[in-house]
Amino acid sequence: VNRVVDNEKLQRLFLEHRDHLYSYIYALVREANTAEDIFQEVGVRVVSKGEAVPAESDFAAWCRGIARNLVLHHWRAQRRNPVIPNSRLLEALDRAYAEAEDTSAASQPGLWALVECLRLLSEPARTVVELRYYQGKSAAAIGQRLQRSGEAIRQLLVRVRRQLAECVRARLALGGNHGS
Amino acid sequence: MDRNRLADLLAGWEEEGLSAAERDALAEWLERDPEARAQAVRRFTFSSDIARALRLLQIEEGTKNQSEVASPGQRLPGNRLQLWSGRLPGGIKGLAAGLAAALLVLAIWALWDGARQAPAAVIARLEAVHGEVYQLAGTTRSLVQTGREIRSGQGLETGEDSTAVLAFADGTRLQLGADTVLAELTDSAGRGKRIDLVEGSVLADVTRQKPDRPMLLTTARAELTGQGTRFLVCSGPSATHLELEQGLVRLVRRDDQQAIDVEAGFYAEVASDSEPLRSRPVPPRIRTPRLSLHGRFTSLTFSPDGETFATGTDGQVDLWDPDSGEHCASHKWNGEWVHTLAFAPDGRTLAMGGKNSRGVRLWQVGTDQFVQLGSGGTIHRLAFSPDGRTLALSRAQPSFQLWDAVQRVERWTLSGHKGDVTNLAFGPDNQTLVSGGEDGTIKLWDVNAGRELATLAAGTGAEKSRKANRVLAVAYSPDGKTVAAGFRNGTIQLWDLAAKQQRATLRQHTGPITALAFAPDGKRLASSSNDRMIKLWDPVAAVEKVTLLSHDDGIIDVAFSADGQTLASIGKDQKANLWSVQDATRR
To answer: Which of B6, B15, B32, B257 to mutate against chain A (most A CBs within 10 Å)?
Structure first.
């Protein structure tokens, strides 16, 4: 293990990989609040390991390893409905994120463009998006709550995602940003 | 390869809707297809970006609506950061690690840097604060004074004797009654005002809002939307009561989404039972008593013949003519706040007890003669049996005593309540007595045998605390068929004694019930509350007939005259009011 002792470097590395790391955690737990908790816990672990941080080239994989262990621990701790992990799927997702390390995740301007685009959604569409991506409710559960079929909610989400992606692209192309 | 099928599997994984076989199929697909892996990362990254963007949007708009976005126990972004920084010391050793931690905190903050750029907006200001009022911000709870600004996402809490008035920039005002909790207040251009009333009461003056963004007030049982309206809403976990003074409010029962429009002059109630949702006319209000006296009154009672009524104050008991308001006689008891009075049925003895009393004093009315019974300590309540043979007294204790009023000896000390016995009332048969306790129970007792007969209630549900379930007042109907009990949470329960079952719950008060009294003919039940209101009810139909509004502060006690024509009330506003019941109920 090559030791990283430069704290500025540690910060830079974490900043560099945080979006991918958060996306990876979200892909595993699929619920925003838990993803944020685990993301922060990874940060705590990274700091507490201090001098045992690996080389730069292994940093992202090392963070994902910590995150994965925390996710497994979280799943086991689910009292009501413990999740039985599919190790093949976890391996495949890990590989997918390892391969995608070089591709860029959302930039801050991209994130703010998304904020603006979410603001433009109709009230019902935004409610569905919040229930799905913020609270982690399934389409069926959302449908039950809004007295619509789960399939109708799924189709709505497909349309809304497409709409949001197009909106973000258009805003970034126009140079749209937060506050515009 | 069917990309739509892959998209379905990825979407299914996201919402945890895949079977084991489908999870295997997805794993296999990802293992063999690099493009599938790239698609998976793109999809999940976009989903996580949406989650992050929603968070930023909510922070910016201050529209984190608890009912739609956050479940109880979830934390605001601010708390998350506090937790993050609070969590660090346990995991970090040494100065170098501390520095690294600080840098990492900055790095992680940067993930949510919009939060720092857009602090929650100020949405309202506390226009008036009486007593202890708390501002709720995340996990913190701090005392506030008049003038304090309230930011989006913050809440407010009033205590037993406190109230607050919250004013929004557009002139909308919320008057919070006692024991009220507003969990999260938000006001944004996108969604309008959102008020989450956890429990308690709010008198809302809502100015005109944007047509498509009326104010939304949610309770455990209902959702209210309105604008350009004035309404009173009282709510607990089991019921919501809405009363309209002006305008119109749409009321939605959350259980079944049934909705009605409630107009000015009407009220509606949403309870846990499945009664039809409908509005009814608000009972009339009378604001002028027949007679009003001034003094620091702490107790009152009518003489059995109705010719006089007695009031207790600091160190003195006074007798008054209820028709003219003339003072008839007085009895000094230096150093004692007399806060319970009971006339013996023969009208010749007046029993009195107080906060520091050296026992119960029995005064021979119209003379200088008196005797003392028992030992000292706060006495909550005194009650003579209808035949005058027994005197019951409750102290600040879980037990109470029954005295032989003729021999003047104690007969029984009755235990069973798990908290102080707050109130007592004899049944018309002289044999039965009802007691109410701070433990939230109503108990029936056999006076002759000195034993408990039954426990009628164990609180009124899982309210904010056990305090809310305290029984503060009890009354026995003259026909012996019904017991009424008033709770600190403002509800009144009517119990059918033959069936030992609760017959009705009356919810129109917004503060603790301080006293209950049946009219001698049993056709009316009077209730008083800290909410400054006295209400007269038809106890058979369990409907309110009239509200008496004249006191400027909480009501301490009420009593009917022997002929049932006059109702007397005393309040913390240092007034004793006499009301003509006939006038009040003829409307």
So the answer is: B15
- Tell me the nearest-neighbour CA distance from A40 into chain B, angstroms: 7
Say which residues have a Cβ less than 8 Å from residue B573's Cβ, sequence separation at least 6.
B551, B552, B553
Q: Could you please report the per-residue DSSP string of B266-325?
A: EEEEEESS-PPP-EEEPPPEE---SEEEES---EEEE-TTSS-EEEEEEEEEEEE-TTT-
**pLDDT tens-digit map of B371-413:** 988 777 788 899 999 999 999 999 888 899 999 999 989 999 9
Q: Kindly report, residue by residue over B486-540, the tens digit of the pLDDT.
A: 998 888 999 999 999 999 989 888 788 999 999 999 999 999 998 889 999 999 9
Beta strand B370-373 with B360-364 is antiparallel
> Count of residues for chain A?
180
How far away is chain B from the Cα of A176, in angstroms, using its nearest Cα?
Answer: 15
Those of residues 229-268 in B touching chain A at CB distance below 8 A are 257
Contact state of B52 with A164 under an 8 Å Cβ cutoff: no
Q: Where are the extended beta strands (E) located within B421-491?
A: 421-426, 432-437, 441-446, 451-458, 471-476, 482-487
Contact: A127, B68; criterion CB under 8 Å: yes
Q: Can you tell me whether residue B424 is helix, strand or coil?
A: strand
For residue B264, what is the DSSP state? T
Residue with tokens 């003829």: B586
Q: How far apart are CA B252 and CA B292, in angstroms?
A: 42
Least CB–CB distance from A18: residue in B24, B87, B111? B111
> Is B140 at the interface with chain A, CB within 8 A?
no
| Pick from A118, A114, A65, A33: nearest CA to B73 | A33
- CB–CB contact B11 A50 (8 Å): no
| Percentage, residues of chain B above pLDDT 70 | 85
Cα–Cα distance measured from residue B219 to residue B519, given in angstroms and rounded to the nearest whole number: 35
Total-model pTM: 0.58
Which residues lie across from B286 on neighbouring strands?
Answer: B548
